[in-house]
Amino acid sequence: MKAFEKNIRKVEPYVPGEQPWQTVIKLNTNENPYPPAPGVAQVLHTMDADRFKLYPDPTAGELVKALADYYDVSEEQVFVGVGSDDVLSMCFLTFFNSEKPVLFPDITYSFYKVWANLYRIPYECCPVDENFRIVKEDYFRENGGIIFPNPNAPTGLYLELCEVEEIIAHNRDVIVIVDEAYIDFAGKSALELIEKYDNLIVVQTFSKARSMAGMRIGYAISNPLLIQYLNDAKYSFNSYTMSQAAIACGVEAVKDKEYFENGIRKIINTREWAKKELGRLGFTCLDSEANFIFATHPKYDIKKMYEALKNEAKIYVRYWGSERIEQYIRITVGTKDEMDALLGFLEGYTQK
Ligand code: PMP
After folding, report:
1. pLDDT > 70: percent of the chain
2. Whose CA is nearest to atom 2 of ligand 1?
């Protein structure tokens, strides 16, 4: 081994879902199948490329203001970043510096472990119960911070806001991050607790309900003090995180509330219909409140089914094969046509 090896920060990276170039039915990374609000395309078409010779506004002020107005908070309460991955990674760096372990569920967004390892943060995973539900009492103990998604991923299960609040209330000495990447498809957001709890940070994204995964916009909302700490860390890392195009498109997307709400309704309707259809084919689906369905089938090996979907039907879903979820696939809710194609293939598969 070379001498320099011992001083290299080695990490086991997060493995994102495949992004194939060829035409496939892509139900593997929880993107939205519908285009962003029409105003976004308009902004792109009218954008003056000359503007790109300058750096963007490092505060992304217009986007911060649009979000502050939308959520009825002050601009000092909003932090924006390059997707919620960027925001979450900044949160880990900024808020999780204790010698006590950070807590998160064992079955959850697999990036949490990766950031904890990258930043050398101790962590412990709290097992979700046999129905894959987060057990709130597991978080009522000494720790160095807490993070969980609501709804959780990849299960899609939503934790009622009163239970989220209990977790926050039991942990006033540490920072609690609620990752609400999928909240728009589910129940109440923890945003309404921001004023009440000074240890709470809510993180959301434009990648799912706003159909803008490719533009990379995420944000955190909290109290001005915690947002200030986040900004201090960001300016110590990379001041120009948001591109000019992302700022302009993000502002435009936030303006169109009607389009946003209609899009969410469509996805929820398709989700509920697809759950029933999968049930008809013998699948067991968790009661997801996100834009994906976590499913298993008692009679078929799920890994083989995942491979058949991919190789025979060019339908990509997500499979991990990791402990406790070896027999589950996660299916992103696509358009009705895409789901019809999936169900058509699975109907044939389960009759074989
Ligand atoms: N949190 C959760 C729970 C997710 O599933 C994802 C999507 N992979 C993200 C955060 C990050 O999404 P983005 O960076 O696109 O905002």
Report:
1. 100
2. 181
